[in-house]
Design a protein that fits this description.
The chain is an alpha+beta fold and 169 residues long. It is built from three helices and ten strands; from the N terminus they run H-E-E-E-E-E-H-E-E-E-E-H-E.
Length: 169
Amino acid sequence: MGRSFRSLILVVVLQVAAIGNAPAAQGRDTVLIGYEPGTIVVETSERRLYYGLEKGQSVSYPVAVGKAGKTWTGVAHIQGKFLNPAWSPPEEIRRDKPNLPDVIPGGTPENPMGVAAMTLNPGEYAIHGTNAPSSIGHFASYGCIRMHNHDIMDLYQRVDVGTPVVVLR
């Protein structure tokens, strides 16, 4: 093997390794991961949300998930769907941030829910947009699943109340 051929192989190996270690905040994509059609699966460690389609495909979205001590796993269902929702901070957030108002109106820049939210049953959690897009791809929330506003609108159109949601480690 010539020197330049070995250098080319090394570059290709490094590029493949870089792709495998790409940050979780990459954009929306359709992937061959066969989750049950019509099911939302959140892979917390990957900071990705998958929505199962037909033929072994899933739509993959980058998300922000719960910060240290705020992550959770389990099965839930979409309980409600809301556009430009108002937000009332849960008690846990209010303890950490006592100066928050009781209600932040929907559609305002201060509202952390973004353009849409889908509440989960059971619990006080939601899958929602965000007013902090730089948080996507990180462990950043109090347990909610944050999405870019354009991604929550895409998912919002795909799912119905009652859609199963599985949150994995």
